[in-house]
Design a protein that fits this description.
By secondary structure, the protein is of the alpha/beta class. Helices cover 46% and strands 14% of the residues. A four-stranded parallel sheet has the order 3-2-1-4, sandwiched between helices.
């Protein structure tokens, strides 16, 4: 049995939120190589379209520009993906990142960390990177 047979995802429609980044892009690549139809969601249109073009060598791939913290935009993206690729069966939450002001360094110790920067980081990584996508893409 070949690896391609063992990990055949040709019946799957995968959404990779944060698919324009390094980790998300690599996961999108693996899903596409395994045969899944892949929708990349992210904020960077140029990188997203380039990644979708690269993945289209393996099958159907598309890019949807979306802010992970905008529930309405995520809901619209879900409808578009279902229309173009079919019902979503795989969700990869790879959105996130760090706000420079929220990183603890010798110059920015935790005792001086701005609460607003920490909250921005929390929202991006947990609300936009996990909760909202699960609520919207998991509801179907």
């Amino acid at each position: 049995m070949s690896t391609n047979d063992r990990f055949n995802l040709s019946q799957e429609v995968a959404v990779v939120l944060g698919g324009t980044g390094g980790l998300g892009g690599a996961m999108a690549q693996g899903l596409a190589q395994a045969g899944a139809k892949v929708a990349i969601l992210g904020r960077n249109k140029e990188r997203g379209e380039a990644k979708a073009k690269e993945l289209s060598k393996h099958g159907q791939a598309s890019f949807v520009s979306v802010d992970a913290l905008d529930p309405q935009a995520l809901a619209q993206a879900e409808k578009r993906i279902e229309k173009e690729l079919g019902p979503v069966t795989v969700l990869v939450n790879a959105a996130g990142g760090n706000q420079p002001a929220a990183i603890v360094t010798p110059e920015n110790p935790v005792t001086k960390l701005a609460l607003s920067a920490w909250k921005e980081n929390f929202d991006l990584n947990l609300i936009g990177g996990a909760l909202l996508p699960c609520q919207i893409f998991g509801a179907g």
